Amino acid sequence: MKTTINKVKNYVGKEVTIGAWLANKRSSGKIAFLQLRDGTGFIQGVVVKAEVDEEVFSQAKALTQESSIWVTGTIVEDARSPFGFEMQVSALEMIHESVDFPITPKEHGTEFLMDHRHLWLRSKRQHAVMKIRNEIIRATYQFFNDNDYIKIDPPILTGSAAEGTTELFHTQYFDEEAYLSQSGQLYMEAAAMAFGKVFSFGPTFRAEKSKTRRHLIEFWMIEPEMAFTDHDESLAIQEAYVSYLAKAVLTNCKLELTTLDRDIAKLEKIQAPFPRITYDEAIVLLKEKGFDDIEWGEDFGAPHETAIAESFDKPVFITHYPANIKAFYMKPDPKRPEVVLCADLIAPEGYGEIIGGSQRIDDLELMKQRYQEHQLSGDAYQWYLELRQYGSVPHSGFGLGLERTVAWFAGVEHVRETIPFPRLLNRLYP
Ligand code: 4AD
Ligand code: MG
Asked: Could you list which residues have their CB under 5 Å from ion ligand 2?
């Protein structure tokens, strides 16, 4: 019977055949332990010399790392391994012999591994990270579909900036200049006026010359946008969504979290409601923590965010930032127009800003004024202004960075390991 590793629990006591690669191997004169992987999982195959044909045992001993094979054997329960099962191998058939696989079980430097990303992806650790990424993607669709959101796909080639003009990727669009999308938000606002509650999920691009553990040049963002929804209601949606994702990963990625040695107790704390502090309160907190030179009106950097997050054991919303350090479309607080109705959600453990969101300006005149202040060319945004002209409503939305969320849940230090082929400041290969 041909099967895959994720299904072996259905075949305890039975003989099965699996198409696999040899991830690693240990052997002595009497026994060989084969670490097998097939993409769906990892299982140990045990070849006992006394129980197999002479030829099978010498085949096993000669197997090279990453050779592809058909392995046949009996599935048995194995209480000692986190996976719970192993295979007592009875036959091996070579599909393709791998020679000198570059990533050996010894330690390699990060640059070397990044140069070999196409092969590094096969490792158990990378496998676990990508499975967690996949679970977050699956749970995202589930959450928004269950809550009556419509998925809308904004364009990637755009004629104008959504999040400021300094970080744009330029490209030629026949006779015009175009940019790769930094955010689908402006289009999602149009979609919200057509469908009420919408979300997008796609790649976004930032030509940011940042070389930090939180920055990618190409990353994936989930951007919900809700009509008839104010800032406070949006925060409730955000904390419900993030809590839902945490629960999904805890429930469906137990083995992967074990592989990554993730502290589960920390993830179990990710349950709504999340604390909220204002930007003003954050400034006071930072001064108490020794950031003496931070002034009201300055944006927070990674060290500030980390220090603020340390005061909480859950993610924390920082709300009401000064208008002048946030995007042009954010709605001023009617009670205090120098701050805007916005929030950044800061993850614990130094993972930084996971979500940026806000209530949007819905007044046409105010939006026009903001254009002038931000020196944005009205023509490119004419369609966006028209959303405020024909039945404008209070509306809010946010963007969650997929890779930062994966890094946080998986407990991975750097976002470069959370996307299959990271695009970094100095890396466009492989
Ligand atoms: O805070 P940002 O820039 O917000 C927006 O783009 C809004 N238009 C979203 C919206 O309201 N619809 O980005 C949102 C999130 C950040 O909180 C962060 O998680 C992630 O996107 N992000 C990045 N992730 C990896 N690398 C980068 N260079 C990132 N820049 C932002
Ligand atoms: Mg932001």
From this structure: 356
